[in-house]
Each structure stands twice: as structure tokens, then as C-alpha cells.
Amino acid sequence: MNRPTPAAPSVSCVFVCHDGAGRVLLARRGAGARDEPDTCDTGAGALEWGETFEAAVAREVREEYATEALDVETLGVRNVLRGEPVDSHWVAVVFAVRVDPATVAIGEPHRFDALGWFTPDALPEPLHSQCGAGLALFARRVAGAG
Question: Has this prediction a pTM greater than 0.90?
Fold first, then answer.
């Protein structure tokens, strides 16, 4: 597939939702997902024109998980290049987002078909190809807080 090369990379807000007690929320990507169906992933969404990072994360958490972001913390930035030759390029700003597990639900059933809470030592498989990098940033945050 020959796609025109964009003028610049896209900007994505990736978020690792957690319960504040050591568990992370992962969604299984369904048949309608943009890529890698049947893999588990953290949340993410594009930064829209004129939007702050925090507003983008709050909007995407509401859209994907039907809940509110209680705390939002920046974890890091990744330069994501996919394909050989590169056919996908974006800058991923990664956040930790505390949510209330009792209020989480699938907000986009056309993209996700299951949600689950997991501890870092018991993650489901397979994970989306980009999921591990975001979880690693989250693990560094948790280790630094301990």
C-alpha cells in the first residue's frame, strides 16, 4: 500500500490507567480495532488541534473507558516508528492515569471487546506491539515512588 508521506508525525496521548493499588487496566482490541486485533493494550488517542495533553487524556479516558481521569501524571515521551520502510510515525506522550475501577466500562465496543485489571507480574498475552514500552515507563514510575 502506498500512502503519501505526512508532513510531520502525529501526536498521540498514551495512557496507562491504574487503580492506585498496583493494578493496570488493559483492553483487548476487537475485530474493529485499527490494528493488532485480539491483543491487549493500554489506552491512547490523538491530540486534537488546540487541545492540551491533559484535556486529550481526559477526553480519551471518557471515550474508551467511560470514566473520569482522577489523577494524570506525565511518564515520558516515545518516538514511535513502525514498518520497514516506515509507514507509521508518531510521537507518543505517555501518562499514568488513576481511575476508579468501579466506574470503568467499555466505552468503544466497536474497538474493544474486553477489559481487565492486571498486576505487572501477571499480564495477559498477547500484548499489542507498543504496549510493553508504555508499561515499562509506568513500572519505572512505580519503582521510583517506592
Answer: yes
